[in-house]
């Protein structure tokens, strides 16, 4: 199975949100990383065939997804970023409704819903109205609806937004297991959510795919640029201006250990450390980037 995206662009009036993106997705978990405004949602909505590209094409095993229509939708699951529910429905009624829309065979519906409720630890709230649920629970109901038809291609836009640390861990394990022989594409700006489960990652910036690779391959881009050292706490205001500090920890005794990004060591006691995906992300997306809007 291969989902091939070729020279895909999307233009909204004066804004090109996705610029000439080419990417071939194969089975496994794919992380789509990028700051707010990078174009992740726009790209995913085109892959979901709910937004028409301005140019370019998306093929599944050589067939246009748009031309496949119903056939594509039957093997596809989507969790949109802004997920509007029928909030007055109970969780169970809502999932039964979606199952009917997706042509899940009636005799399989109950078993499927029960198993998803169980996996996503929603069984206890299945008779509650969606409107009464916490943000994390709603997100998990959203994940459940995307998976009802046992999709071969699962696209989830910021699935871990609003989940607490325990829920994030369960989500990661569950997706890892699920991804066998399927294409799972997950967008996030929370790097740790995909760092250890993604087969490959695509890094998106200002509408373009900057790089594609495994986490190990990608972090190499930040090799030689991540340092740690200890500095006196009263000098921190100066270091905060001079260094791109990723992390700081107060060690007590007027000492602060810091992790920073630079082309070379900036203090005498700095030690070069192996980069993590988050370091690369911050290297590629300095803070001002997510604020600055590029046309
Ligand atoms: N319907 C739209 N009309 C106009 N501009 C849009 C529309 N949707 C997205 N954009 C713009 O396209 C860019 C990419 O947005 P989006 O795909 O939502 O990025 P991300 O999901 O990575 O945050 C942003 O600058 C956004 O404002
Ligand atoms: Mg988005």
Q: What are the salient characteristics of this protein?
A:
295 residues; alpha/beta; Rossmann fold; 4-stranded antiparallel β-sheet; 29% strand; globular; binds adenosine-5'-diphosphate; binds magnesium ion
Describe the 3D structure.
This is ABC transporter ATP-binding protein. Keywords: ATP-binding, Nucleotide-binding, Transport. This protein is an alpha/beta fold. It folds into two domains: 3-218, Rossmann fold (3-Layer(aba) Sandwich), CATH 3.40.50; 224-273. It has helices spanning 40-47, 65-68, 70-74, 91-101, 106-119, 135-147, 165-178, 215-219, 236-242, 277-284, 287-291; strands at 3-12, 15-25, 28-33, 55-60, 63-64, 76-79, 153-157, 183-188, 200-205, 208-213, 226-232, 244-252, 255-261, 271-272. The strands form three sheets. It has a six-stranded mixed sheet, with helices on both faces. Strands 2-1-4-5 form a four-stranded antiparallel sheet. It has a four-stranded antiparallel sheet with strand order 12-13-11-14. Bound molecules: adenosine-5'-diphosphate (ADP) and magnesium ion. Adenosine-5'-diphosphate binds at residues 12, 15, 17, 34, 36-42, 293. The site of magnesium ion has 4 residues, from α1.
Largest β sheet strand count, sense and barrel closure: 6 strands, mixed
Number of helices: 11
Distance separating the two termini: 35 Å
Q: Radius of gyration, Cα only, in angstroms?
A: 21 Å
Strand segment count: 14
Number of domains: 2
Low-confidence stretches: 288-295
Please state the second-level CATH architecture of the largest domain. Answer: 3-Layer(aba) Sandwich
Which H/E pattern describes the elements?
A: EEEHEEHHEHHHEHEEEHEHEEEHH
Bound molecules: adenosine-5'-diphosphate, magnesium ion
Integer average pLDDT: 92
> Which structural class fits the helix and strand makeup?
alpha/beta
Q: Can you tell me the overall shape?
A: globular
The CATH superfamily of the largest domain bears the name P-loop containing nucleotide triphosphate hydrolases
Query: What percent strand?
Result: 25-35%
Provide the CATH top-level class of the largest domain: Alpha Beta
Proportion of residues in helical segments: 25-40%
Q: The CATH topology of the largest domain, please?
A: Rossmann fold
For the largest beta sheet, what order do the strands appear in spatially?
A: 6-7-8-3-9-10
């Amino acid at each position: 199975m291969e989902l091939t995206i070729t020279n895909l662009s999307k233009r909204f009036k004066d804004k090109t949100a996705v610029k000439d993106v080419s990417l071939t997705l194969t089975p496994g978990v794919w992380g789509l990383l990028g700051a707010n405004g990078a174009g992740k949602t726009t790209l995913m909505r085109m892959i979901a065939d709910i937004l028409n590209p301005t140019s370019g094409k998306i093929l599944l095993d050589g067939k246009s997804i748009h031309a496949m229509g119903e056939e594509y939708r039957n093997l596809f699951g989507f969790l949109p970023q802004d997920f509007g529910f029928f909030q007055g429905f109970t969780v169970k009624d809502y999932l039964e409704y979606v199952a009917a829309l997706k042509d899940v065979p009636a005799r399989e519906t109950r078993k499927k819903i029960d198993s998803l409720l169980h996996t996503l630890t929603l069984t206890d709230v299945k008779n509650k109205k969606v409107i009464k649920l916490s943000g994390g629970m709603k997100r998990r109901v959203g994940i459940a609806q995307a998976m009802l038809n046992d999709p071969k291609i699962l696209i989830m836009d910021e699935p871990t937004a609003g989940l607490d640390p325990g829920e994030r861990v369960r989500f990661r394990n569950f997706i890892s297991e699920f991804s066998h022989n399927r294409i799972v594409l997950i967008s996030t700006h929370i790097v740790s959510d995909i760092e250890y489960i993604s087969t490959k990652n695509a890094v998106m910036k200002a509408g373009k795919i900057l790089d594609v690779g495994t986490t190990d391959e990608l972090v190499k881009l930040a090799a030689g640029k991540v340092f740690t050292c200890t500095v006196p706490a009263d000098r921190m205001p100066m270091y905060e201006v001079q260094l791109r500090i990723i992390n700081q920890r107060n060690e007590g005794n007027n000492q602060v250990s810091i992790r920073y990004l630079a082309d070379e060591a900036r203090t005498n006691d700095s030690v070069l450390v192996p980069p993590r995906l988050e370091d690369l992300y911050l290297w590629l997306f300095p803070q001002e980037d997510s604020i600055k809007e590029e046309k």
